[in-house]
């Protein structure tokens, strides 16, 4: 591991830098990445943001979004930039499997790898780590990295502030999750003072749905929602055919699991969706129930205690059956 003083020395002169984030980036992934990008370009660095895959249209308004390179659409260019990079910042993920094929290219790249993340159990691929599982978002850690590690808070301009506010807002559930501490509110207030238009950002992210998405949401809640009252569990399941029928785009399924969790008395909600390669699971829970434990133990995934994800190589029906078969093991906790 390199020290912060060594990193400061490196960042004092122009470097070739790549910033990347996890598969199917969300608001925190793009907010932390583009916020860091907007900070570093002010210092004269040559910076590229490379995402492993595409990401939701409702995040395309973000400052410098037009500069983002999508690996699946520009593999050769992405690999060239990774191999030429002096520094590679990894935002909002801590294991290289989270960035698909791009992960092995980064593992083999000669540049220093720098992790900024808040997830459990990091893989040891990094040369510098700014990591805290108690942070509500990677964007919070980027703010802390700029302000408290590098002591360059004066470089948080409107673009940086808008991106970091987006990451914090989305990963804290609009500041309603327990991770949204008073310290997080103070950071948000500072970002607003520095130019983040909080009302506009909320509108662009949350009030920007397509007609297809709303109709699909109605279908999920009316026809696909199953309540298991014996376990205080709610499940929404979606097939690949249903995704096709509603012409679902990247990001259209985001947040649907939270509607199941919002039902009175529900302690664990699952959104189980059939994708082209695997069946994906998104779990949300309340209180101390360990959604991440289920994902890690049974579905090759993980995450936070109350928000986790995983995947299954089984078909949709068998994955649903497996998930239900697990519930008796947790019945006591679910009924508390």
Automatic annotation (TrEMBL):
<protein>
    <submittedName>
        <fullName>Bifunctional oligoribonuclease/PAP phosphatase NrnA</fullName>
    </submittedName>
</protein>
<feature type="domain" description="DHHA1">
    <location>
        <begin position="245"/>
        <end position="324"/>
    </location>
</feature>
<dbReference type="InterPro" id="IPR038763">
    <property type="entry name" value="DHH_sf"/>
</dbReference>
<dbReference type="InterPro" id="IPR003156">
    <property type="entry name" value="DHHA1_dom"/>
</dbReference>
<dbReference type="InterPro" id="IPR001667">
    <property type="entry name" value="DDH_dom"/>
</dbReference>
<dbReference type="Pfam" id="PF02272">
    <property type="entry name" value="DHHA1"/>
</dbReference>
<dbReference type="Pfam" id="PF01368">
    <property type="entry name" value="DHH"/>
</dbReference>
<feature type="domain" description="DDH">
    <location>
        <begin position="16"/>
        <end position="168"/>
    </location>
</feature>
<dbReference type="InterPro" id="IPR051319">
    <property type="entry name" value="Oligoribo/pAp-PDE_c-di-AMP_PDE"/>
</dbReference>
<dbReference type="GO" id="GO:0003676">
    <property type="term" value="F:nucleic acid binding"/>
</dbReference>
């Amino acid at each position: 591991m390199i020290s912060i003083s060594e990193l400061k020395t490196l960042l004092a002169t122009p470097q070739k830098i790549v910033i990347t984030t996890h598969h199917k980036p969300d608001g925190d992934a793009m907010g932390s990445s583009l916020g860091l990008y907007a900070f570093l370009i002010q210092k004269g660095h040559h910076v590229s943001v490379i995402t492993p895959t595409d990401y939701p249209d409702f995040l395309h308004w973000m400052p410098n979004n037009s500069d983002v390179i999508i690996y699946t659409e520009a593999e050769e260019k992405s690999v060239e930039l990774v191999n030429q990079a002096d520094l590679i910042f990894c935002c909002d993920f801590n294991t290289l499997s989270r960035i698909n094929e791009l992960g092995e290219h980064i593992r083999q790249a000669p540049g220093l790898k720098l992790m900024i993340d808040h997830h459990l159990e990091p893989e040891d691929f990094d040369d510098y780590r700014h990591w805290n599982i108690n942070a509500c978002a990677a964007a919070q850690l980027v703010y802390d990295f700029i302000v408290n590690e590098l002591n360059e808070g004066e470089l948080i301009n409107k673009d940086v502030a808008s991106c970091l506010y987006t990451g914090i807002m989305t990963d804290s559930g609009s500041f309603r999750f327990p991770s949204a501490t008073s310290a997080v509110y103070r950071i948000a207030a500072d970002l607003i003072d520095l130019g983040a238009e909080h009302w506009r950002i909320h509108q662009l992210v949350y009030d920007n749905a397509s007609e297809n998405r709303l109709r699909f949401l109605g279908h999920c809640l009316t026809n696909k929602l199953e309540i298991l009252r014996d376990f205080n569990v709610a499940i929404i399941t979606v097939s690949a055919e249903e995704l096709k029928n509603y012409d679902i785009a990247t990001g259209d399924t985001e947040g649907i699991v939270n509607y199941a969790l919002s039902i009175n008395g529900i302690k664990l909600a699952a959104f189980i969706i059939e994708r082209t390669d695997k069946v994906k699971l998104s779990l949300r829970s309340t209180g101390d129930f360990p959604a991440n434990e289920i994902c890690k133990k049974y579905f090759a995934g993980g995450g936070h205690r109350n928000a986790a994800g995983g995947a299954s190589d089984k078909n949709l029906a068998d994955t649903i059956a497996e998930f239900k078969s697990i519930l008796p093991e947790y019945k006591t906790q679910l009924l508390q």
